[in-house]
Amino acid sequence: MKITQIDVFAKNLPMVSGYNMSSSTVGDPDTTVVALRTDTKLTGWGEICPTGPLPQVEHAGSIRADLDLLGPALIGADPLRIGLIHDVMAATMDGGQGARSAVDIACWDLLGKVHNERVCDLLGGARMDPVSTYHVVPIGTPDGSAQLAEQLQEEGHTKLQLKSGGRHIDEDIDAVHAVAKVIRPGVDLFVDCNRGWTVGEAIQVSRACRDLKFDMEQPCATYAECATARTHLHHPLVLDESATDLATIARAISTGVADGFGMKLTRIGGISGMRAVRDLCEASNTPTSCDDSWGGDIIAAACVHVGATLTPRLSRGAWISAPYQAGHYDEEHGPRIVSGMIAVPPGPGLGITIPEGLFGPPIASFS
Ligand code: 0XW
Ligand code: MG
C-alpha cells in the first residue's frame, strides 16, 4: 500500500455546555483532521484537537505547520509499516509529536481496514466493551459541583474528575469536600488541577482533605514540583501533562513519583505510543486513563479502541469530549457515553465512517 495523497482539514467543534480547567475556559475548539489517501482507494483518518494554546504545548497552528512538513515526506510511504512511518517522520522533524500522533492514528485506521479488524483487536483484543470512562465536573461552586456529581452518578457514571485550580485554594477545598460528600460507594473521584497549584498549595489541599478518597491529578506545573509535592501528599498522585514521553513515565513509576497517569494519545505518539504506555502500566500495576485533549469521533474512537484493551482494574477510563459538543461525524457509530460506558465502534479500523465532504475543502493537500 502507498500513501498517494494527504489531505488536512480544519473544523470548529461547537460546544453545547461549559467546560473549564485551571488554565482556561474551553470555547469551540478547532480540530485538525488528517486523511491518508492510498493507492488502494482506502482512506485512513487521524485527528488532534487541543483545547486551545494554553493547556498544552501543541495548538492548531503549530500542528498544521508541522503537517506542512510531514505531508510531503510521507507521500509514497507504506502506511501499514507504521514503524517506518515513524522513522520517516522522525527523520523529517524533531518535534511535531501531535501531528505525528494524528498520522499514526490514521495508519492504524488503514491497518484495520485492510485486515477487516477493529483497531482494538489489532492491539490484542478488547478486555472491555463497552469501555469505562470518566466525566468531568468543571470548576464551579461547591453546591453546583456537588449537584452535578449527584446527577452524573444518577446517569451511571462511576468515575468523576473534579476540575480545580485557578482560584484561592480555600474555594477548591470547599468544592472537593462538597463533592466528596456525595460520592457513592464504588465511584472513583479524581481531582485534576491541570498544573494550577504551587507545591505548597497542593500540600495544603491534601492536608485539608486528608480523610477524603481521591487521586490528585497534575497538581503542579512541572514534573519536579509534582515529585516534591508527592512526598507530602496524603493522596495518590496522577501525572498528566508532565507525562511527556515513555522514558519520563518509566522514571515516574520506578521512583514512585506517579501512582497513575492521565494519558493523552497525541502527546505520546498516537495509538502506537499509547500501546507502549498501556503495556508499561500493566507490567508495573499502574493505573492509567486513555484520553485526548478534545476532538471529534476520530480521536474519540482511537481513545476508546486503546481504552478497551486496558486491564479493567487498571483503567482510569477512556475520556471523550462528546458530552460537551454538538453532533458526531458518524451519527451511527461515533463514540458516545451511555450509562457511564462507551461502546467500541464495531467496524474495521477505527470503525468510523466519514460522510463525503463533511469537513469541506482541505486546508492543505500533499501528493
Ligand atoms: C479531561 N481531559 C482528558 C480532557 C481535557 O482536555 C483536560 C484533560 C485532563 O484530564 O487534563
Ligand atoms: Mg488531566
Count all strands and give the number: 15
**Radius of gyration of CA atoms, rounded to a whole number:** 20 Å
Structural class: alpha/beta
Low-confidence stretches: none
CATH architecture of the largest domain: Alpha-Beta Barrel
How would you name the oligomeric state of the polypeptide chains in this document? single chain
**Helical fraction:** 25-40%
CATH topology of the largest domain: TIM Barrel
Structure overview:
This protein has 12 helices and 15 strands. The chain is globular and about 60 Å long. Helix 3 crosses helix 11 and helix 5 (about 140-155) packs parallel to helix 6. It has 2 domains: about 5-115 and about 355-365, Enolase-like, domain 1, CATH 3.30.390.10; about 120-340, Enolase-like C-terminal domain (TIM Barrel), CATH 3.20.20. By secondary structure, the chain is an alpha/beta fold. Helix content is about 35%, strand content about 15%. The structure holds (2S,4R)-4-hydroxy-1,1-dimethylpyrrolidinium-2-carboxylate and magnesium ion. (2S,4R)-4-hydroxy-1,1-dimethylpyrrolidinium-2-carboxylate (0XW) binds near residues 194 and 294.
